[in-house]
Amino acid sequence: MSQNSEISQMWKEHRDYSQNKRANNRVKAQETLMKNGIKYESKNFGAHLIVQGKDGTYDFYPGTGLYISRNTKKKERGIFNLISKHCIPKVTV
C-alpha cells in the first residue's frame, strides 16, 4: 500500500468516526434533555434543537455540542454546561 493510500484510508476512517460520533451525540443530547425535563423543539432531524432556558432561548447543535444564546449571541459548548448554566432541570427525589 502506498503512503498516499494509507493517508487516504486514515482520513476516511477519521471521517467515518466523526460522523458516527456526531450522530451519537444527537441521540444522546435529546435523551439527556428529556431526562432532565428540559423543553426543546427539534429541527432538521435533530441536528438543531431550540432549547428553552431560564434566561432565554438557545440554538443547540448536539452534533458538535455548540449552543448559542439568541439574546446575547454568545457561543458555548456542551449539553451539561447548557443545562447547568441556563436551564432548570426537573428535580428528582
Highest-level CATH class: Alpha Beta
Number of helices: 2
Question: Helices and strands, in N-to-C order?
Answer: HEEEEEH
Rg, Cα atoms, Å: 17 Å
Structural class: alpha+beta
Number of domains: 1
Proportion of strand residues: 15-25%
Shape: elongated
Helix content: 40-55%
Strand ordering within the main sheet: 1-2-3-4-5
The CATH architecture designation is: 2-Layer Sandwich
Low-confidence stretches: none
Average of per-residue pLDDT values: 92
The profile of the biggest β sheet is:
5 strands, antiparallel
CATH topology: Copper Amine Oxidase, Chain A, domain 1
Distance between the termini: 59 Å
Structural commentary:
By secondary structure, the protein is α+β, with helices and mostly antiparallel strands. It is built from two helices and five strands. The chain has one domain: Copper Amine Oxidase, Chain A, domain 1 (2-Layer Sandwich), CATH 3.30.457. The protein has a five-stranded antiparallel beta sheet with strand order 1-2-3-4-5, with helices on one face. The termini are far apart. The mean pLDDT is 92.
Brief sketch in words of this structure:
The protein has 93 residues and is an alpha+beta fold. It is built from two helices and five strands, in the order αβββββα.
Could you list some keywords that capture this structure?
93 residues; Copper Amine Oxidase, Chain A, domain 1; five-stranded antiparallel β-sheet; 2 helices; 5 strands; 44% helix
